[in-house]
C-alpha cells in the first residue's frame, strides 16, 4: 500500500490518515507474516515430502540398481547358459547328423537284411520241400529195405535148410562111398555073382544119390547168387540214402 502524503486540513486529519495507513500496513504485515508462515509451512511440508520422496527415490534407485545388478547377473548367467546351450545345440546337431547318417545306413542294412531273409526263407522252403522229398524217398527206401531184409531172412532160412540137407546128403554120400570102397576091397579077394549084384546095386544107389544131390546144389547156387545180388542192391540203396 502506497502512502501518499497530501495536503491535510489539520493535524487530526493527518494523524487519522497515518493511523489508518499504519493499520493497513499492520494488516498487510500480518497478511505477509501469515503468508510467510504459510509458505514456511508449505516449504517445510515440501521439504518433508521432498525428503520422503528423495528417500523413496533413493530406495527405488537402490532397488532399481539392485534389480539392475540382479538382471545383469541373470543376463550374464543367461548369456553363459545361452553359450552352453549353443554348444549343446551344436553337439546335438552333430549327434543328430551322425544318427541320421547311421539311420540311413541301418535302413539300407534293413533293406538288405529283408532281402536276405526273404532269400533265406525261400531257400528254407526249398530245403523243406527237398527234406520232405528225401524223407519220402527214405521211407520208400526203408520200406524196400525192410521188404528186402524180410526176403533175405526167408532166403537165409531156405539157405540154412538147403545147406543142412546138402550136408546130410554129403555125409550119406561119404558113407556110401566108404561102403563101396570096403566092398571093392572085399571083392578083390573073392567075387561071387551075388557080390557082383550087390556091388552093382551100391553103384546104382550112389549114382541115384548123386543125381538127387545135383538139383539141390543148383538150387543152393541160385539162392547164393540171389543173396549176393540182393546184398549189392542193399548196399547201393544205403549209399543212395547217405
Automatic annotation (TrEMBL):
**What UniProt keywords are attached to this protein's entry?**
Coiled coil
* One GO cellular component term noted in the UniProt record for this chain: kinesin complex
Q: Which residues form a coiled coil?
A: 15-186
GO:BP terms for this protein? centrosome localization; chromosome segregation; establishment of mitotic spindle orientation; microtubule nucleation; mitotic centrosome separation; vesicle transport along microtubule
**Entry protein name:** Uncharacterized protein
Q: Which family does it belong to?
A: Belongs to the nudE family.
Gene3D superfamilies (alphabetical): 6.10.250.1080
Recorded superkingdom:
Eukaryota
Q: What is the lineage of its organism?
A: Eukaryota, Metazoa, Ecdysozoa, Arthropoda, Hexapoda
GO-annotated molecular function: microtubule binding
Amino acid at each position: 500500500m502506497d502512502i501518499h502524503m497530501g495536503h491535510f486540513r489539520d493535524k487530526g486529519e493527518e494523524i487519522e490518515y497515518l493511523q489508518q495507513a499504519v493499520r493497513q500496513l499492520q494488516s498487510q504485515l500480518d497478511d505477509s507474516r501469515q503468508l510467510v508462515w504459510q509458505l514456511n509451512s508449505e516449504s517445510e511440508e515440501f521439504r518433508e515430502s521432498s525428503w520422503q520422496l528423495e528417500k523413496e527415490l533413493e530406495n527405488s534407485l537402490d532397488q532399481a540398481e539392485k534389480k539392475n545388478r540382479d538382471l545383469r547377473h541373470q543376463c550374464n548367467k543367461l548369456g553363459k547358459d545361452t553359450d552352453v546351450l549353443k554348444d549343446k545345440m551344436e553337439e546335438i546337431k552333430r549327434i543328430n547328423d551322425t544318427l541320421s547318417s547311421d539311420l540311413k545306413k541301418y535302413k539300407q542294412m534293413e533293406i538288405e537284411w529283408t532281402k536276405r531273409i526273404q532269400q533265406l526263407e525261400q531257400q528254407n522252403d526249398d530245403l523243406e520241400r527237398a527234406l520232405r522229398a528225401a524223407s519220402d524217398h527214405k521211407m520208400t527206401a526203408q520200406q524196400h529195405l525192410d521188404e528186402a531184409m524180410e526176403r533175405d531172412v526167408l532166403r537165409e532160412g531156405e539157405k540154412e535148410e538147403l545147406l543142412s540137407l546138402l550136408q546130410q546128403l554129403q555125409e550119406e554120400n561119404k558113407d556110401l562111398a566108404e561102403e563101396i570102397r570096403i566092398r571093392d576091397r572085399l571083392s578083390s579077394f573073392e567075387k561071387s555073382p551075388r557080390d557082383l549084384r550087390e556091388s552093382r546095386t551100391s553103384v546104382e544107389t550112389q549114382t541115384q544119390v548123386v543125381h538127387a544131390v545135383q538139383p539141390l546144389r543148383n538150387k543152393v547156387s541160385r539162392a547164393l547168387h540171389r543173396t549176393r545180388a540182393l546184398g549189392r542192391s542193399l548196399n547201393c540203396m544205403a549209399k543212395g540214402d547217405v
